Amino acid sequence: MTASDPFSLAWAGVILLCLIYAAVCDIAVRLIPNRISAAIAGLAVPLRLADHQLVPGLLVAGLIFAVLTLFWMMRLLGGGDVKLWTACTLLVAPNGLDQGRFAIRVMLVGGLLAVVYLILRSIVRLRGRRAVPVQHDPPPRRSLIARIWRTEQWRARHNGSIPYGVAIAASAIITLWPQVPR
Fold it and tell me: What residues have CB less than 8 Å from 178, skipping those under 6 apart?
């Protein structure tokens, strides 16, 4: 695939849509569909074939999966996060430098996301101390974003999980952006 090949741009667009969809699903319901991780891994295979790195890519992805499975067993990551991170590993060249950069990006973006959620929890707890008037009218129809915001506030009050798939997807996008043909 050359930089001027429109198929390459379309391929990158499909991968981008899959990553965005995974992040939105993780925010909305805290689940990343297996089919999305499988689609990303499947879309990565031709990229690894093109650079003759499929076998090393699969070995690195297997190693990453094994390590992340330990994190899942310790309840530090969700199963969908493990599968998404593994699939995204196939998108990145299977060398130590590129894989290390990707992992560091995931951790940095994940840390930033954690800080945002800590701030959100503080805001929600402060607001929760004020008296809320009782409303007997049916609730107004809310937009999707308003419903997600309300759900995130509930999760913050109840110490819900952080959508780490957002950090993984964002890091994959940041990592792959320079490679997208223009």
Answer: none
Single-letter code of the amino acid located at 178: P
User: % helix / strand / coil in the chain, to the nearest 5?
Assistant: 75, 0, 25
Q: Distance between CA atoms of 102 and 110, rounded to whole angstroms?
A: 12
Residue by residue, DSSP assigns 43-84 as HHHHHHHHTT-HHHHHHHHHHHHHHHHHHHHTTSS-HHHHHH
Contact between 172 and 19 (Cβ < 8 Å): yes
Contact, 89 vs 75, CB < 8 A? no
Q: What's the rounded Cα separation, in Å, for the pair 123 and 120?
A: 5
Asked whether the whole model's pTM tops 0.90, one would answer no
Higher pLDDT, 68 or 117: 68
Cβ contacts of 90 within 8 Å, gap of 6 or more? 40, 41, 44, 45, 47, 48, 57, 58, 61
Please give the C-alpha separations between residue 123 and each of 83, 115, 118, in angstroms, as whole numbers: 32, 12, 9
Q: pLDDT digit string (tens) for 25-43?
A: 999 889 999 999 999 999 9
